[in-house]
Amino acid sequence: MTSDLLAPLDLVFWHIESDRHPMHLGALGVFAAHSPTAGAHAADLLAARAAAVPGLRMRIRDVWRPLALPPVLPPAFGGATREPDPAFDPLDHVRLHAPADDFHAAAGRLMQRPLDRRRPPWEAHVLPGADGMSFAVLFKFHHALADGLRALTLAAAVLDPMDLPAARPRPAEPPRALLPDVRRLPGLMREAVSGAGRALDISASVVRSTLRARPCPALASPPSGTRRTAGTVIDLDDVHRIRKSAGGTVNDVLIAVVAGALRRWLDERGDGSDGVAPRALIPVSRRRPRTAQPQGNRLSGYLTELPVGEPDPLARLSAVRTAMDRNKDAGPSRGAGAVALLADHVPALGHRLGGPLVGQAARLWFDILVTSVPLPSLGLKLGGHPLTAVFPFAPLAPGQSLAVAVSTYRGQVHYGLVADAAAVPDLGRLTRALSQEVETLLTACEAGPRRSTGTARSHTGTGLEEGPGAP
After folding, report:
1. Are residues 220 and 128 part of one domain?
2. Residues 35 and 138 in one domain
3. Of 6, 62, 123, 186, which has the fewest Cβ atoms less than 10 A away?
4. Are 312 and 412 in a shared domain?
5. Cα(387)–Cα(150) distance, integer angstroms
6. Amino acid 361: pLDDT
7. Can you list the pairs that 328-333 forms with residues at least 24 positions away whose Cβ atoms lie under 8 Å?
8. What is the pLDDT of residue 341?
9. Any idea what DSSP says for residue 129?
10. Residues 230, 324: one domain?
11. Which residues of the chain have pLDDT under 50?
């Protein structure tokens, strides 16, 4: 294994992290078990398999100038490399905990702890169930190490082997010369001009969206450094029934469910939802599934207002559909949601020096993150124990109190919520509101009675006790 420079967006995630705002992704997988020792066996398996996964051996090390380059100020000045850790020990990363009654309560405490930046930035926490009939694994990957698809690949490498399609080979890249080929200069100039134009367009869109912003106090908070997690499971068939009746895509319905749940939550806690339209950042992966691609984040995004203030559930869905269609027509390389692409236009030293400022500016740019994490349709197992539920967790931006992630797995939709535990003591109420909003949309679509096998289960946990106003 050789070292490679972090891509610009990876540097952003590496440098905006602070003790109160760790920048790791998470996923809480719940497995069915048949004995109280299943969790301990799973921890042993994870440690043994992690030792054989090259990507899990990679640490991130700050550098000032690669030795292979001449002593001038290169683009990598002030950057970082991803390189093998010569002292890698999987037992530093895989941890077996005491039996837990509430997996989400444990996950909330663990999600608030930053990863050790001196080691490969990932962890796997095994949580045996107190009933002996289940166990959970909380995976944590630093966003500089992996985006959602890359994290999925790394996690799958330590689960039981699956028969997956082979990755399509990526065409070999020619070695990079210190000076560009003069025959490519016209094309490089055109690319530079086009890139600069996109950057100006994105920057102007960000400024316009910031000027139009109306703050949503419930979604903003001073950082407490604490975390609370929760999750709910809904039936994918119900989502399809809504989609077929009202139109749009599955993703449109899932975003509209978030908007409706926020409305119900704000009204129930007494904040009121009239006129509220928080700006949601919806990341868009530029990485193609099942294709071998370089490591590093390849993300853009859409910025859209959630129609929380709209009282009609079908009108909310229609508004989401219209906004998302408009975003798709413009493409993921334009508009305020594509601000991640600006990272390519900033030198490495700029990310190092400006990272904290970029993090603080996130609350001016968007109010809530709503992201989708893909999962394979095949059943996943660990030590022969089937995965029954998986709740994805996204990192919180500084000054924000809530992030929502969604995964679809084996006919069910899993919403994973991460909140600042001090700012959102009633996360369980919001979690239940997601399930209630699906019911509301089904009723509005006149979809008929719920199937008796339909599911809508909520799970909530925190690093703190439930506070005032909690259900």
Report:
1. no
2. yes
3. 186
4. yes
5. 19
6. 54
7. 328/302, 332/284, 332/286, 332/300, 332/301, 332/302, 333/198, 333/300
8. 39
9. B
10. yes
11. 66-77, 164, 167, 173-180, 182, 188-196, 199, 202-203, 206-207, 211, 289-294, 335-355, 359, 447-455, 464-471
Neighbours of 237 (CB within 10 A): 13
136 & 248 share domain? no
Determine the pLDDT at residue 15: 81
Position 200 scores a pLDDT of 52
pLDDT of 394 reads 94
What's the confidence (pLDDT) of residue 213? 53
Quick check: is 255 in a domain? yes
Are 124 and 243 found together in one domain? no
Residue 173's pLDDT is: 46
Structural contact between residues 75 and 65, judged by C-beta atoms closer than 8 angstroms: no
pLDDT, residue 348, reads: 45
Please indicate, yes or no, if residue 26 is contained in any of the structural domains.
yes
Count the domains in the chain.
Answer: 2
Q: Residue 207: how many CA atoms within 13 Å on its side-chain side?
A: 6
Identify whether 168 is part of a domain: no
Angle (CA) 210-214-220 rounded to 5° is 90
CATH of residue 26: 3.30.559.10
Q: Is the CB of residue 365 less than 8 Å from the CB of residue 281?
A: yes
HSE-up of residue 198 (Cα within 13 Å, Cβ side): 21
345 domain-assigned: yes
| pTM value surpassing 0.85 | no
**Quick one: 98 and 213 in the same domain?**
no
Quote the domain boundaries for residue 23. 4-156
104: nearest Cα among 132, 131, 129 = 129
Contact 80, 188 (CB under 8 A): no
Per-residue pLDDT at 160 = 93
One domain, residues 134 and 236:
no
